[in-house]
Amino acid sequence: MPLFRWNESKSCTRETALKEWVKQGGPCLEPLLTGCAFQTLLADSYHAACRTADMASRPYSLHASVAFLQTTLGQPAEALRAVIGGFHDKRLEEYRIAFGPRDGNTVFHGVIWPLLGAEDETSDVVGEIESLLRESGIKEILVHGQQFPYEFCDDCGAPLYPNIEGDSVHAEMPEQNNAPSQTLH
Ligand SMILES: [Zn+2]
Q: Where are the domains of the chain?
């Protein structure tokens, strides 16, 4: 017996099923996820679905971070700068994208872009990240060619992010309305 809608008839492809799922399923999920941004994906076999969600969550977290910073700082995306660096353990493990003010060298927030599947340093991952950042409205993007060490904060375990000078630093939101900074150590 067909398990999924797209198994049932030739006229329904996975693409059309996804379109209908977003249109019909999205509004049903919305009341359950009040105040959350979400993206509906197709059902799939367990490991394939996990992999698809991992792939889709990378661009999602870039867009979400730019939206979060614009709201929190009350500034447009053009006021931000993104710095991209490749972080290496024994090999290239992931790219880290730091967000900060366009006119300063501090890092407010960061996003990790893990390599998945067969991706390695020869894949054009940086090109993909850059075009997603531009889609989000970021105009100032710096890509470091150097290899960053795979470092985390000794105190809280948070990943360190590249700043414009090519150092790995702790991301820290600016103090606002006299509220203490979000990092307490
Ligand atoms: Zn820390």
A: 12-53, 58-169
